[in-house]
């Protein structure tokens, strides 16, 4: 039979383990609660040549009240010497900026305190294509997110009634796109498409869907290259109902690599 002493001894041991476990648990909770996150809603944006593009990056802090003076944001591009953009002490710090991004990159300064670290890149060039990293350091948050920017040339078509059919005209596409028309049951329809290419490799697309069509039915015109797809829904009468772009399904969802810890450590030291 166990003596009172032994019972007390073992009870103490159990108690110590339980307390240690609880402390570890509390520390883990406190630690994770103090860690904010850096994330993007659009990891695979497709920029349109000579237009502006926003590389989305936001950070969430658990503490809430953040002054932008405590926020440190660095945008990097893989393989690039220097930086794309840096923000620190409430101001742009562009002494290390690569000249390729001079006067073309900026943040939404008024929105930084609210967790917006997105980069606005003006007049996109083909050479902007590549992998970008948004690094954020702020009270209770530090991390980075990867964004793969692809650059293409695309435009929504103007659709008009032509004889008894429809005619779609899109002024600029790159890499001769596929054009398909479907009826509202998703059945593919016969159509004929011409591509008028300019010396710069940009093509004008003109596609005809012959009639007769049903006035009240919705027809959808898809214009698609390897990166992006334009979707236009129009009635048999040529009234546009909806028009939007989606990034092509042919674009593979790459698994995000684990945190690059080395730059982060350097970055924390610098901060
Ligand atoms: C940041 O603000 C800009 C301008 O208002 C907006 O276009 C962008 O979507 C915002 N991004 C995030 C992540 O909130
Ligand atoms: C579509 O074109 C194919 C071949 O060009 C032809 O065989 C078929 O009958 C056409 N379909 C319609 C609905 O016109
Ligand atoms: C092809 O493009 C040129 C230059 O943009 C234009 O003048 C011409 O009318 C176009 N041709 C067709 C068939 O659309
Ligand atoms: C166009 O369609 C063909 C046949 O379905 C396909 O092989 C090709 O990759 C497509 N091209 C583009 C740019 O999507």
UniProtKB/TrEMBL annotation:
Q: Which residues cross the membrane?
A: 7-31
Q: Which SUPFAM superfamilies match?
A: Immunoglobulin (SSF48726)
Its keywords, alphabetically, are: Disulfide bond, Glycoprotein, Immunoglobulin domain, Membrane, Signal, Transmembrane, Transmembrane helix
Give a single Pfam family match: V-set
What's one GO MF term for it?
A: signaling receptor binding
Per the record, its GO cellular-component terms are: external side of plasma membrane
Its annotated compartments are: Membrane
List, for all copies, the residue spans of the domain called Ig-like. 51-136
Lineage top rank: taxon? Eukaryota
State the protein's name: Ig-like domain-containing protein
